[in-house]
Amino acid sequence: MADIMLHTSNNSGFTCISNTFIDDFMKDANGEYVKIYLYLLRCLNREDYDFSLSQLADCLDHTEKDIMRAFTYWEKVGLLRLEYSADNELSGIYLEDVNGSGSFTSVNNSAAPMPAVSHSAVTNTVAPKMATPIKPSYSADQLDAFKDEAAVSDLLFETQTYLKRPLSSTDTNTLLFWYDGLHMSVDLIRFLIETCIDNGHSSIHYMDTVARNWAEDGITTVEGARKSSSKYTNTIYTIKKSLGIGNRELVDSEINYIDKWTNTFSFDLDIIREACERTITATNKPSFKYADSILSRWHKASVRTLDDVSQLDQNFASATLEKLSNASASRTKFQQTSGNNSKAKTNNKFLNFEQRQDYDFNALEKKLLGN
Description:
This protein folds into three domains: 122 residues, Orthogonal Bundle (Arc Repressor Mutant, subunit A); 89 residues, Arc Repressor Mutant, subunit A (Orthogonal Bundle), CATH 1.10.10; 71 residues, Arc Repressor Mutant, subunit A, CATH 1.10.10. The chain is elongated, with a radius of gyration of 39 Å. Strand 2 and strand 3 form a beta hairpin. The protein is mainly alpha-helical and 371 residues long. The chain has a four-stranded mixed β-sheet with strand order 2-3-1-4, with helices on one face. Helix 2 crosses helix 4. The protein contains 17 helices and four strands.
């Protein structure tokens, strides 16, 4: 995996922004693209600095896809040139001199390994599919009009609950931009916020980047967003593998089961995988219905972790042993009672006398004959 070299023809001990960039390039560019370009300029003058897409994305609270989209834009307008190794991996970023001066100077920064990205992948996949509108600044009257909508008002309240803090005016403006400018439904916005927070990103700025990505990718529904999610794709793959399902797509009814387990029940993947493995052990076939019966029972029992599953198993085993023990004791008592009843029957008043075992038939005969 090639390191990335960040270099330019004009290296100095400070970050210098050309007036040409401000006058001719900045005004037409997306604000986030400008931020990324400025940060590239800053990185040129940092010694012993590990430069990589992941580092840049983390620093600016972006995704790597956002970073590559910005690189592609600036390459298109002529401010930088992306360089690739022989195996089509991004190996360098050359920042052109905005003022057109000549010589080639470089600053080497050893980078952490990054995923292979071919030039065709950058231009065909990372480039925006749809242009997103510019985020407006809503007036007080417009904000009041939005808040009069019950669904929007509920969304703002829920977002504050998710973030565990009041929304600033900028936060509110951003959420309304998703709803009004990007035409996202309230359900899709809610799913966006939940997904970002679940992945450890509580920044509205980060969420705004994801929202723009979805808009550019033509994602308009929760189902579409979920299917595009790498986490959801991993969930599908893991469940298929646990159930022994080969190279076939899941049907809608099976997808609905997975939605139920992950969203309605909110089970972690390890819980779902355990239920799937038990399904195969019990039925020897991939039965979503059987797995659902297990997970429904666990959900009813408030299972949240594998330790909870183990505890539930122990409780079930203990209850089973207790039932067997009680059944055995009842059977023993019944047998004892039956034995006593048999003795009672042989000692009733009709048979309560000493029965003679030996008789003198000669004496009886003489008595009967009167002799």
